[in-house]
# Entry
Amino acid sequence: MAGPGVFLIEAQQRLLHGGVARVRLRLGGRTALVLLVGAGPHDRADTAALRRAAAVAARNATKDAVLAVGVPGDIAAGDDDESRARAIAEGVGLGAYAYTQYRTKHADAVSLERIAVVPGEGVDADAVARGVRRASAAVDGAKPARDLINTRR
# Structure
């Protein structure tokens, strides 16, 4: 069996290339699944990479889970905190979308109980709140459009 160092090296390589690493942690008598999602190389990560990574996190979250996504202050440095928060909230919201009306199996659909977008270290909480509000409007507008596309014959 490989030791924790090997796991961390493998996880780092996956994350560097936009992959996902799943870690189960025991916290106060409960087990939590922690998803680490890569946004690509640090020097090339932008808001589009953050949006894609957040969508991957939403699609890989456990059914009926609470998903908390942090807004990093050190990635996509050319953008402000509000733009990073908006990109992440849009990614999570659109990644969690699933049209299930005609599905016979609903078990494979994403169904997050709650989504929390939280400011990372040094990130302005008010800017995150503004970004989330703007993203919510965009996601709320995109969902009916996606529903129409899925029902179009």
Observations:
- Residues 1-7 have pLDDT under 50 and may be disordered.
- The CA atoms of residues 144 and 150 lie 10 Å apart.
- The first helix runs from residue 4 to 16.
